[in-house]
Amino acid sequence: MAQKKGKHNRLGYALQLATVRFLGTFLTDPLDMPEAAIQYVAQQLDLTVNPVKLYRYRTRETRWDHRHDIQARWGYRDFSEIPAIFDLARFLSARARLMAEPPSRLLDLSTARLVEHRVLLPGVTTLTRLIARIQHRADERLWRDLAALPSEAQVTALEALLDVPPRSSVSRLDQLRKAPLSVSAPGLVGALKRVEAVRRIGVTTLDLSGFPEQRLNTLFRIGMGVNAQAMRRMTRSRRIATLLVTVSRLEGQALDDALTLFESLLTDLFNRIERQEDGARQDQLPSLEEAARRSNQLTLAFLESLGQPPQNFPAFAARVLALVSQEQLQAAAETVQALTRPRSETRLEGLLSRYSYVQQFLPALLRTVNFEGSAAGGPSLAALQALRRLERRSQVKATEVPLTLVKGDWSKLIPGKAPLNRPAYTLCILDHLHLALKRRDVFVSASPKFSDPRLRLLSDQAWTALKAEVCRSLDLDPDPQVMLAQLSAQLDERYRLVEARLPQNAAVSLAEEEGRTVLVLQEEEALPEPPSLRHLRELVARRMPHLDLPDLLLEVHRWTGFANAFTHLSEARTRVGHLDVSVCAVLLAEACNVGLDAVVQPETEALGRGRLSWVDQHYLRAETIASANARLVEFQATIPTVTAWGDGQVASVDGLRFRVPVKTIYAGQNPKYFGVRSGVTYVNFISDQSGFYLDSGPTKRADWEL
């Protein structure tokens, strides 16, 4: 810069150099920047420039010479050069082919890549058009490759899904997309028929593993979300590709629904049997009391005879029968024996009484679902294979089936050398299958939810390569014995510390309950609120602004940009204006359960009924809500006051329970909270950073009680 004549030329050269380094391009007006930036660069060069001469720099040809000199000295290239365009286009093509990213993400990546490779940034419209063109080509290539997989017969079967059958108001695709609603044996049979209907289309066996997973997920989301009319308007290749991916993934979703329904059905069956047993025992309590009273008379007579001179048994028996007749003693003994049977025996009898109910869905389940398993699930798989072979056979010997799972009370009902007790054997296998599915000892590979959990684990070679790095990042010793020794020492130290402080700790005591020693914590009384706290609460309440919920939601979006996390179903960028207002309106209507009518304003385009309905259908999904929630959490962590409260590692967890007015297999019975209706429980927690979060999945009573 010292070679440039004039202070204004040296400063102008420096400003253009700083601009291209920071922005990645030159400004049309080299001085179109904050005054503070100009003064800072001038101070670095120790220059005091005449403003008039500096103004002349922006209008003379010298600035162009400086621009060319900077490009030559530091290796900056124009975007119009073929190598620069080709390099960026190849990069974008790879991203667009492998991942379903929105155009805004690709624009950010393109800008960063051009700056890194010292390519002068073109106009925004130039990049957006290039990105749109490349994405369109990648989409067409994906659709074309997918559409080439099925045969003509399979294509015909796929396109027939868009037709509406006679005496029906919805297409076959809509019928397949409809999940089961009733937790019952007919509902499970219908769910299994849905799996068979998907398989009969004949495309679930096509291998789609060579295609990017994210792109397939996007097509599946579109196929499950758009209606049949919109799918008919697609181009042929896109329509076939969307239908192919939708049907291929629909098999796994249908299996998930069927197995979830099967699991819920068995859980409800076992719980119902236990409740019936408890009710029967309560109903028979008066008979048990009467039997116990009569038996007690015999006991008292025996105790009284112990202190008297020895006498013969007939005299003692006559004395007892004078108090209680022989018929009454016999009836009391039979009543006590019947009412005090082990629960395991009565449970088995209850299960056997439901055998006909199980037979309504068991054949369809064994015929439709292909169960697999680990080594621990081997006995269950062998028993299931035996059940398949037993179909349509009236007489079966016990030696023809594996009896590894027949243990405990089941062995009394299923002797090893007698003819097979078919109902008892079937229910025994189902009882073990229910537990094996929960432990994933038995799994279904085609089901995403009930698949083999080992598939997500690292292989031996991969784990060996990453073991040191993973342990280092978690601050763990690679040797498990060392870690177990450290944890054992810490646990022993804590136990000894607690034991040593017990005599001085008035809030803790030991008590005996049911033969066990338990730790009892004394409840502390609530402290009275000091006047300073009440005064502080009043001051805070005065400073809190009074505003409507829509204003609050839009203000939070202005801080965090959470509404931008809601993307279109197809990951395409929308061109509508004020989309954030529409998203916030739909969120408010859903959160307050008031419907769209309460937020519709026909005079405002962003709040029109058509716009809000379109946003509700194409933007609100589980993944977009999770992404928006993540933005809120990330922004909250940047607030100094929040970080002073805690690091977010401690939380108070509870459940929010809601009645579900519609039928769904994901809602369960809970008489304590829902009465005779069904409901769901959403697990939520408040962290020590005062952050409130909701779990996205409902849990049934059987789950959260465990």
Q: Looking at the structure, what is the overall shape?
A: extended
Instruction: Give the averaged pLDDT, no decimals.
Output: 83
- Radius of gyration in whole Å, from Cα? 37 Å
Number of strands: 8
Strand content: 5-15%
Into which percent range does the helicity of residues fall? 55-70%
Structural class: alpha+beta
Low-confidence region ranges? 694-706
Q: How would a textbook summarize the main sheet?
A: 4 strands, antiparallel
Distance between the termini: 75 Å
| Number of distinct helices | 32
In total, how many domains does the architecture comprise? 8
Organism: Deinococcus caeni
InterPro entries: DUF4158, Tn3-like_transpos, Tn3_Tnp_DDE_dom
Keywords: DNA recombination, DNA-binding, Transposition
Protein name: Tn3 family transposase TnBth1
Verbal overview:
The chain has 706 residues and is of the alpha+beta class. The protein folds into eight domains: 68 residues; 66 residues; 102 residues, no CATH class; 57 residues, no CATH class; 82 residues, no CATH class; 41 residues, no CATH class; 95 residues, no CATH class; 69 residues, no CATH class. It is 59% helix and 6% strand. The protein is built from 32 helices and eight strands. Strands 5, 6, 7 and 8 form a four-stranded antiparallel beta sheet that branches. A two-stranded antiparallel sheet has the order 1-2. Helix 27 packs across helix 28. The longest helix is centred in the middle third of the chain and has 48 residues. The N and C termini lie far apart (75 Å). The C terminus is likely disordered. This is Tn3 family transposase TnBth1. InterPro entries: DUF4158 (IPR025296), Tn3-like_transpos (IPR047653), Tn3_Tnp_DDE_dom (IPR002513). Pfam families: DDE_Tnp_Tn3, DUF4158.
